């Protein structure tokens, strides 16, 4: 039994196994990078008035994310003639950006006379922050697995990355519900809305994180039957 315990403790991964873990970790890091990039921007959704709504040479549109919103004033002459709404946000114009007060005073934001849903926006932001926490924990587990040369830490790492991907996707879904709640709060100003590139970035990140988490599970599976056979081999000797 003493020799068996020593054999279990000194069991290390091979260079091939370490290379596969690093490759799977690279996939997860891509998801982490896309998540951070998308969460830090304010291009989750674009709200655009009809380009001739004001009756002058300018029109207004808004775009916002989890933390900040911007109102942009664009020149109608710069907009595609076939486009009926103001935008896109990449056109040159004046911007007025402010951070939301959901997290400080708890006030709702008003965008073109429409009021945000504080609870939904807070829920989306909290889920996004929780997903970042799980990503950090998963990265720590992978670092410990590579530094100590053991497979055990891949199991909690896979759980952390899969859960972080699910939380990211839930954050996107709840954010979309908050946009629909905003649009239904007032109907005096017609608005065209569309989810922007940040949502595509974060949504892709969630799928990549889940895929990376399952890669770690696949790496763990081949070792489980082998480890279960160890007691039998030692008992026969």
Automatic annotation (TrEMBL):
Specify where it is mainly localized. Answer: membrane
- Provide the protein's localization: Membrane
Q: Gene Ontology terms, cellular component aspect?
A: L-type voltage-gated calcium channel complex
Residue ranges spanning the membrane: these are: 21-45, 122-146, 158-183, 195-223
**What Pfam families does this protein map onto?**
Claudin_2
Keywords in alphabetical order, please.
Membrane, Transmembrane, Transmembrane helix
Record's signal peptide:
none
Single GO MF annotation: calcium channel regulator activity
What membrane topology does this protein have? Multi-pass membrane protein
Q: What superkingdom does the record give?
A: Eukaryota
GO BP, sorted A to Z: calcium ion transport; regulation of calcium ion transmembrane transport via high voltage-gated calcium channel
| PANTHER family attached to this UniProt entry | VOLTAGE-DEPENDENT CALCIUM CHANNEL GAMMA-1 SUBUNIT-RELATED (PTHR15025), VOLTAGE-DEPENDENT CALCIUM CHANNEL GAMMA-6 SUBUNIT (PTHR15025:SF6)
Q: What is this protein called?
A: Calcium channel, voltage-dependent, gamma subunit 6b
């Amino acid at each position: 039994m003493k020799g068996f315990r020593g054999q279990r403790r000194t069991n290390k991964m091979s260079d091939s196994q370490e290379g596969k873990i690093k490759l799977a970790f690279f996939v997860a890091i891509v998801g982490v990078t896309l998540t951070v990039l998308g969460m830090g921007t304010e291009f989750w959704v674009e709200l655009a008035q009809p380009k001739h709504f004001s009756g002058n040479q300018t029109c207004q549109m808004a775009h916002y994310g989890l933390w900040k919103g911007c109102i942009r004033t664009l020149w109608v002459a710069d907009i595609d003639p076939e486009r009926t709404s103001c935008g896109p946000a990449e056109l040159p114009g004046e911007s007025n950006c402010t951070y939301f007060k959901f997290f400080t005073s708890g006030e709702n934001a008003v965008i073109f006379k429409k009021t945000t849903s504080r609870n939904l926006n807070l829920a989306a932001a909290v889920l996004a922050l929780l997903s970042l926490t799980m990503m950090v924990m998963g990265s720590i587990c992978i670092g410990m697995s590579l530094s100590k040369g053991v497979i055990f830490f891949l199991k909690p790492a896979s759980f952390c990355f899969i859960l972080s991907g699910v939380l990211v996707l839930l954050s996107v879904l709840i954010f979309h519900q908050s946009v629909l709640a905003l649009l239904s709060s007032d109907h005096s100003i017609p608005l065209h809305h569309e989810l922007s590139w940040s949502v595509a970035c974060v949504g892709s990140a969630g799928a990549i994180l889940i895929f990376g988490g399952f890669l770690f599970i696949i790496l763990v599976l081949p070792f489980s039957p082998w480890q279960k056979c160890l007691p039998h081999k030692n008992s026969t000797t």
